[in-house]
Amino acid sequence: MHDIDVTKENSAVQGHLSKQDEERAIYSVLLEGNPVAFHKASLDDAYATRIDPNCETAKAHAKHLVESHDFLLQSTLDNASYNKLHSFTHIINGFSIHATHSQARRLKKSPGVKLVEKDRGAKLMTTYTPEFLGLPRGIWAQEGGDRNAGEGVVMGFVDSGINPYHPSFAYDPMHPFTSNLSHFSGACETGPNFPASSCNGKILSARFFSAGAQAVAALNASVDFLSPFDADGHGSHVASTAAGNAGVPVVVNGFFYGRASGMAPRARIAVYKAIYPSVGTMADIIAAIDQAVLDGVDILTLSVGPDQPPEDTVTFLSVYDISLLFARKAGVFVVQATGNKGPQPSTIVSFSPWALGVAACSTDRKYPGSLLLGNGQILSGVGFSGPSFGNGSILHKLVLAKDAVKANGTFPRTPQYIEECQHPEALDPEIVLGSVVICTFSAGFYNGASTLAAIVGTSKALGMMGFILAANPKYGDFIAEPIPFSVSGIMIPSVADAQIISKYYEGQTKRDSRGTVTEFGGTAAIGEGRIASFTVRAPTVSRFSSRGPDIIDINNNPADVLKPDILAPGHQIWAAWSPVSALEPMLAGNNFALLSGTSMATPHVGGIAALIKQHNPLWTPSMIASAISTTSTKYDNLGEPIMAEGYKINSLYPSTPFDYGAGMVNPDLAIDPGLILLSGFEDYISFLCSLPNIDPAIITAVTGEFCQYPLAHPSFLNLPSVTLSALTGYFSVRRTVKNVANSPETYLVSVLPPNGTTVNLYPTWFTIFPQGTQDLEIQFSVNQVRDSFSFGEVVLTGNLNHIVRITLSVLPVSV
Questions:
Q1: 0.85 exceeded by pTM
Q2: 312 catalytic, yes or no?
Q3: Which of 90, 234, 396, 571 is labelled catalytic?
Q4: How many folded domains does the chain comprise?
Q5: Source organism's superkingdom (predicted)?
Q6: Residue 98: beta bridge partners?
Q7: Domain check: are 502 and 548 in the same one?
């Protein structure tokens, strides 16, 4: 037995705690007491669902809440030792604060404090997609064409701001808006690059939230504009995808790519900037959400959010997710990006059943690039530029960057200089002038230090005819997404293709005994890469799109909620951009960008939700969400089940609902789904109270609601899907459907059971009248234990052509 120096050990622990205690961070704090939206005295009458934020009782209660926040801080913490950033008063009662760890602990113990959560930071997560989704022939036609689609709906965007000078957001005085928007009361905040005229009617209001960003970072005044102006481009891209004007010409580097239209081109835009090029915080995002709901947006589009689940609480109970719950309670439809960490399972960051989480897929549009070698071989690649000369059939000298490096140059002999074409001073201008130069994907690209922008700069500076960025066997295949090059260029991401180029090059190149090139004999030409083809299998779930199953906590314990909810185009989407392009130098000066991500998929669904809201103005958020889910499709344009991209380039595998949710969004069917499945705020509280091992006191502390009516099991929540993460023996789930059509309809009920289960349905048919409801019992029995989830669906087929699909995801663990 060894003696331990307890004094030294305790001293070390005290020193560690002291250092940790003094670390400053942002914390969001939830408090007891109703916020303004749910303070009964603030409602104009007993039947009101939204408050008038300008009424005296609402203003007085908001003022009271702010004063109570200040009193709590002043009575708990030393003055001037902390910085209060925001007061949340509308959908949640609380505030955010920049303080030390020890101060956060003291707040946590204070009376009336329900939750203290450390800020996790926040991240940012078309010309053709309206055609791909069938909008011109479908919903747009029913609503009077693109000149009316989305009229009367206000879409809120919490993002990086907006470029008010973009034609996608211009106001047309010859076609004025006619809808009454008395439910909306936003404001136009001005600042650098954002004069008052920016709010032109199309952009209905604009605000910015920066207290969190300013607390944790030294903002760069040249890009981190304290105004709603978008210096990044992401926010403009998202807003125009959802609600940009119809028929806007897309021109990049002098080339016309078509015309861009948002999903709901007549919807109005409300901007809530909460992400800056230098930093983003959840505190600013939550403040923006609180304000957007107060202003009265109908749809809230979130292509931003946390990059990981909360560390110390249930995923559904973070301050962010609770704010979305209360936004839903206030009548706002919330659509959320699921994240870009696929194809790894359980990587989604949209957890909650009260927000619609969107996965990303491709369309059938592709921009094929080609490389012609001197021996007649043609290789496919990713090129998004004009040809190297003429029509790309004239061959030019082919040079490997390594063979053009100056022998006596005074620069580091690193891959960036030697083979990655990052520094023009490293290459001999006489060798590369007028040549097609092979740059290699090496350590700099692998580590993220090298950029395509630098290659383009080198190519321009040295007068290259074009460049090839070729895969390196040492690092394997790489992922290549098309970016418009202002010079001729192509990416060859496949090692196998890169080796074909290398073999040809070496066979045509003469060297002396030291390996120095004495004659470049190889030739090549880069073909036209800007002409789209529309023959690709689609949709396919994009590689980057985060996957389910949904999780309850950071330990990836599965939840009985299907995530993602829905699939939408998010791969290679054209939309508006900001010429400042603070984070992507290659796109600087451009008004449009071709981007990929669940950030791009989310506004597609947000815009479609706006069209559904226009068509069915009295529908609640859960009705819209149900309609989108139950009418989606699980089949591609070949009539085959949707496939998903895997880890390897050009590899596809059969997808599952954990890749695409209920399926690919189908706007035409979603406006008339026949049946919907309803769930409201009280149902979500009952769901939270039914979570495994949950303490009801936590639910009460976070939501202010008591667990009076917990569900028998989380899967009993009336969602348009059923997810069972541990099915043992026999289990029965009920779903209730409501007829939202104008006529009675008789439905036949059938099932495709998940593997390992037997599923019985009661009833097997029913007739339902308009506004009537019908319970459906779904009985599961395990007949074979499996080590992974299996999938199926319940299909309700109506005699008036409505088809309603309820996705089943089951893990049978015990017979």
A1: yes
A2: no
A3: 234
A4: 4
A5: Eukaryota
A6: 26, 83
A7: no
